[in-house]
Design goal:
Blueprint: E1 12-15, E2 21-26, E3 47-49, E4 52-54, E5 56-60, H1 63-68, E6 83-84, H2 87-90, E7 92-99, E8 103-107, H3 110-115, H4 120-123, H5 131-144, E9 150-154, E10 162-167, H6 168-171, E11 175-182, H7 188-199, E12 203-204
Parallel strand pairs: 6-12, 8-9
Antiparallel strand pairs: 1-8, 2-7, 3-4, 5-10, 7-11, 9-10
């Protein structure tokens, strides 16, 4: 057994083959296209190991969680007038992808982070304060666990569902797209997003 408080003591969870991952992502990327460390920093990306980029891809259990991890990330949901700028939707796509084999993911839940000697509050703050810590942690875990396909945690904004980050060189070949539709097309994908936002009482401005 690895020493408690060390990254080697990480615990794992398998994401079952065929179970959809829901994605809200920039329309400049396809459903199974990994981001090569481009664009604004996110909680766990960019991941850089010894100066080299590890391309990554985000997904979540549900559309609500996918929205929470992206377009709702910086929104004050307690604001009675909370709304999402329209541009945050029109340059994104809604996709669903599945894996052809189980994905081995490192658990970053509260108890599992504690097992590795890390404090949940420092990594999963609502603001961007923990981004640097999380990006460093992702890079360190990538190096420590060569058999891990990615990371999994409870969505910060929707703490009822899981979100995950995948590493391209390990999980990329296992992913296949199910659906993909730009929200700018104003079709079923946008309707699904607007319905979810309406259920949460969040408008579009």
């Amino acid at each position: 057994m690895a020493e408690r408080g060390a990254l080697a003591s990480a615990s794992f969870e398998n994401w079952p083959a065929g179970t959809p991952l829901i994605r809200i992502h920039a329309s400049s990327f396809h459903a199974t296209q990994f981001n090569p460390c481009m664009g604004d920093p996110t909680r766990f990306a960019p991941v850089r190991v010894k100066g080299t980029c590890v391309p990554t891809l985000y997904g979540a259990e549900t559309l609500r969680a996918a929205l929470a991890e992206t377009v709702l990330h910086d929104l004050d949901v307690a604001d009675p007038f909370a709304s999402v700028p329209q541009w945050k939707l029109t340059d994104r796509s809604l996709s669903s992808v599945v894996a052809t084999r189980p994905l081995k993911l490192i658990k970053l839940y509260r108890m599992e982070l504690g097992k590795m000697g890390r404090k949940h509050a420092e990594h999963f703050a609502f603001d961007r304060a923990g981004y640097a810590l999380c990006q460093t942690l992702a890079a360190e875990l990538y190096q420590e666990h060569a058999d891990a396909d990615g990371l999994i945690w409870m969505s910060v904004r929707d703490d009822t569902k899981r979100a995950c980050l995948l590493f391209e060189d390990r999980a990329g070949a296992a992913l296949t797209p199910q659906t993909e539709e730009p929200l700018a097309r104003k079709g079923p994908a946008l309707n699904a997003v607007l319905a979810q936002l309406d259920e949460l009482g969040i408008g579009v401005s």
